[in-house]
């Protein structure tokens, strides 16, 4: 795989902005989500999209991918990630071992019996849209290289997103010669919302249909938020695409205080079928607005 494959998976140019990448990811993850799309191959497509976004959605991983390809994105050339920052394994293997090789080559006093830290492990955790926003406590099971199975409690912080990871110190492989255990990195994968919500960081977006009458005359409507339903005032003359902001109704900020906002984008729902009374009402509206009467069949004849 070359260093354009991830861009191709998302259908974006290599010079695409982060907003364009996020928009493409939201669209494709919703399209191929296995809970929503049951066609053969949809789940594989979904996993490919997730993998591509985990790299391209992170500026540092993306830079490594652009320069070195998949090995760079996976940490083969070093890199920082997660909530605390760590050096990933892969590519060249354990960098402490690489240092041992240099010591042997250049006479650095290498001690083969010195204590060494164990290998790091990775665990992928799938979260629902709501679990990622509010966090949760759960128990996970994972195996180490020696075949032993471990069960530990994990507290998922509120506000995590796909591709972010949490470091659990000392939960990795056993160390060598009495050295400390490696670490366990829990990588999060968030499912698409079943309620139509989409996220961009701490902000949440929702498309809301309103009737032609509500758009023209204005009204108070109830809209969903991740925190429950709230009242939203629709002013008279609202047009399709109008965006309303609900302050503090988004997701918690992972590294900050408070919540993001929810943005409601309205779409005016134009009726496709009208009964006689509705037609007469609209014809009267047209006549009152334009001063002209809509001609029927006998008028035209």
TrEMBL record:
Domain J spans what residues?
5-69
| MF term (GO), any | zinc ion binding
Extract the PROSITE patterns matched here: DNAJ_1 (PS00636), DNAJ_2 (PS50076)
Q: List the subcellular locations.
A: Cytoplasm
* Keyword vocabulary terms for this entry: Chaperone, Cytoplasm, DNA replication, Metal-binding, Repeat, Stress response, Zinc, Zinc-finger
Quote the Gene3D superfamilies the UniProt record gives: DnaJ domain, Urease metallochaperone UreE, N-terminal domain
Q: Does the keyword Repeat apply?
A: yes
What is the protein name stated in its UniProt record?
DnaJ C-terminal domain-containing protein
Q: Which organism is it from?
A: Leuconostoc pseudomesenteroides
């Amino acid at each position: 795989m070359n260093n354009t494959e991830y861009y191709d998976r998302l259908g974006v140019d290599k010079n695409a902005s982060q907003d364009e990448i996020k928009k493409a990811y939201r669209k494709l993850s919703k399209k191929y989500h296995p809970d929503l799309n049951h066609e053969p191959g949809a789940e594989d497509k979904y996993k490919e999209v997730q993998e591509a976004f985990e790299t391209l959605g992170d500026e540092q991983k993306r830079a490594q991918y652009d320069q070195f390809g998949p090995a760079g994105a996976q940490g083969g050339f070093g890199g920082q990630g997660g909530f605390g920052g760590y050096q990933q394994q892969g590519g060249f293997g354990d960098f402490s071992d690489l240092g041992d090789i240099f010591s042997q080559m250049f006479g650095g006093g290498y001690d083969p019996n010195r204590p060494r830290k164990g290998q790091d492990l990775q665990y992928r955790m799938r979260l629902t849209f709501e679990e990622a926003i509010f966090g949760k406590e759960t128990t996970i099971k994972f195996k180490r290289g020696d075949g032993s199975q471990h069960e530990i409690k994990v507290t998922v912080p509120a506000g995590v997103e796909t591709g972010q990871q949490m470091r659990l110190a000392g939960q990795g492989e056993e160390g060598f010669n009495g050295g400390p255990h490696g670490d366990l990195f829990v990588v999060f994968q968030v499912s698409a919302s079943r309620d139509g919500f989409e996220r961009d960081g701490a902000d949440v977006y929702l498309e809301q249909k309103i009737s032609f009458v509500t758009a023209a005359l204005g009204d108070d409507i109830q809209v969903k938020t991740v925190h429950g339903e709230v009242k939203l005032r629709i002013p008279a003359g609202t047009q399709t695409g109008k965006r309303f902001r609900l302050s503090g109704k988004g997701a918690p900020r992972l590294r900050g205080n408070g919540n993001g906002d929810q943005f409601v984008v309205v779409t005016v729902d134009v009726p496709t079928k009208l009964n006689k009374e509705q037609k007469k009402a609209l014809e009267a509206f047209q006549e009152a607005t334009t001063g002209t009467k809509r001609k029927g069949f006998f008028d035209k004849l």
